[in-house]
Predict the 3D structure of the following.
Amino acid sequence: MGRVAIGVDVGGTNLRFGIVSEAGKVIARSRAKSDAHQGVDAVISRIDKGIAGMLKRAERDGHVPAGIGVGVPGIISLPEGVVRFSPNLPGWENFPLRDRLQHHFRLPAIIENDANAYALGEAWKGAGVGVESLVCLTLGTGVGGGIILGGEIWRGVDGMAGEVGHVTVVPKGRKCHCGNRGCLEVYASATAVVERAGEALSLGTKSCLVDCFPSGLTAADVKHAADTGDALALRMYRDAGVYLGIAIAGLINLLNVERVVIGGGMAGAWDLFIGPLRAEVARRAFDVPAKRCEIVPGILGDDAGMVGNAGLVFRG
Ligand SMILES: [Zn+2]
């Protein structure tokens, strides 16, 4: 019983909904497919349905909903509560999501970039507890980033800060959908690991992965192959660790943060990339900030975004 917030995580694949207490505990969760390709109206109606279900349940259990916090991938204008652009949500250009939700549910609503929400969740109730400065990276379809300085998200003057995934790690490297070449995201995301493995296979590299190539090679296949000692799969994770280490060494020199938190689906392969990552940081960053900075896995998993969004509601 007590005040709760409805935390929502909008992804290109899944929608996640949670009832979150003022203490940051997830009391209930639900999930739906985004089917983002069906367009804005279809996704919004599924978001409405998910939030309505959570509100009904909260009220049934005697909780008082304080508001709705929604994390969306892409570029968000916080003051206007507008989704400017989302690479994963076709058709959402300049969509006034906050006002739409406030009007529909008659509750305060707040929207935030999904990677920032993830960082806020981990900072509030996860692997970032106890420090004032941290950088969060999420390794999934892409590489997301959120920077917390002095306990607050650093958004940058245009609200676009924290794009660690689009830091260049290889000059003239692989092409990124952002228009640049050699971004961290095209070497260290789950997508990149699969694509790079596929490229090596098509050049004739020997690997047990050849059985699931060219059709249907997935990140889970590469992880499984690495776990069984496949040299190509192991190399893909080692390379990802090296490129992550290059970017993180830069962040440590630039920001002197207390902690770097790494989450997202690919963080499940932690043991396969953390060694090369740490070696690269030790090689490239200044000694004092590198030794001070703890590099740790996220602990909230899929809950991190909704917890962060709920926290924003409570903080108003
Ligand atoms: Zn990029």
